[in-house]
Fold this protein.
Amino acid sequence: MVSGYGVHYPRIMGHEGAGYVREIGPDITAAKIGDPVILSFAACRNCEQCLNQHPAHCIRSQPLNFGVGPDYLVAQQTSEVLQEPNIYGKFFGQSSFASWSIVSEESVVNVSGIVKDKEDLALMSPLGCGIQTGTGALINVGNVGTNDRVVVLGLGGVGLSAIMAAKIKACKIIIGVDRYVSRLILARELGATHCINTANLEVEEVADAVQKITANMGSTVTLDTTGFPPLIREGLKMTGFKGKVIQVGTAPETAVIDIPIHEFMVSGKQFVGVLEGDAMPQTHIPQMIQWIHEGKLPLQRIVKFYQADDFETAIRDMKLGATIKPVLLW
């Protein structure tokens, strides 16, 4: 038997998705057949964190979202002979990179009466993870407002979502940090007041650039989406007294950073690890949809649609920067 929570194949992946309910199991109340739904992460809903409205930090998050073993086998490879399932599924409670998905009820957000049509639902399909993470981290954890100086490290889908959230909350200074000019330009258009291009900077110079923009006060909230330890260490340096460093970028499991204990104590800084924007998907996703419809969260600026068979083009375009958030359509 395979154990642990690593990546195991063959497996149906996909951790963001949307579609229409075609069948339901017994005692399901989250949706009925025909309902449009957006998919997000799985949580037990019964542990201390779930009961305290923090399902992203469910104590069973690892096995529910990344587990392997007999309970996570959902399909079989094509064969003329009937076999036992040998393909893993239930990734993030959904495995949505497929034309059909077997979905945990806890991963379902019913958007009946909220989305306008099938095209609108397709646009909303990335809301269940990356967009939720970027917006939720600043709003739910950073509690940002008009007096805040925000730095976003990395301007992919998560980072640009954070830029948009900072604009929604009318933050005083919004700084985007990245090495790709196209992303920096887009960040400006989406709400960044300043941008720092790291292409020609040593990593040790990034904090100095932030201090210059903020008149040596530093940021009040620094969000790292890169998972790059040297840049995260700079994030600690660029954050001002009583500021928060919010870590959402995934780093290697063995990655560590050193925190200067005395400096952290004197400055009152906080270093906070956050998953999924510490959001309640059933309330945060409808809020994001409202912002999108009001034009406050212009998701269409970072989304590009591809047919599922053209997934290699989607991957290439993402790597080349031709799109930020490719969405596959079946």
